[in-house]
Write a structure and sequence with these properties.
single chain, about 110 residues, mainly alpha, 6 helices
Length: about 110
């Protein structure tokens, strides 16, 4: 199983378990997240780039992987992704560099699919 399949399988399996607990607050948070990234005054491509940059600055590898996958789905290319990487690293500082390495590796996997 590759990095992408492993991440997506784990995420889906755990989300199912979490939502099966039928906790109203958690369900609302998941719904809010889904709706925040829906088409609106800001297009989905831009929202995913924002999500990716914020996730890198906050140093959430799972979030970075998720947004990289969504960026790939909405048609971003390597040049655009690396511009987002550069902004996130500039804003977040050198502490973001380890996450940048993992993000570049994950993007390479996505790009080779």
């Amino acid at each position: 199983m590759n990095l992408i399949e492993e991440f997506n399988d784990y995420r889906a399996r755990m989300n199912d378990k979490i939502l099966a607990a039928d906790n109203k607050v958690l369900k609302r948070i998941f719904n809010l997240d889904t709706n925040a990234f829906a088409e609106g005054a800001i297009d989905i491509r831009t929202k995913e780039m924002l999500g990716l940059a914020c996730s890198m600055v906050l140093r959430c590898d799972d979030c970075v992987k998720y947004h990289l996958g969504k960026c790939k789905e909405v048609g971003l290319n390597k040049v655009e992704i690396f511009e987002v990487f550069s902004i996130a690293t500039l804003i977040g500082g050198s502490i973001v560099i380890p996450h940048l390495r993992r993000a570049a590796e994950y993007w390479e996997e996505l790009d080779n699919q």
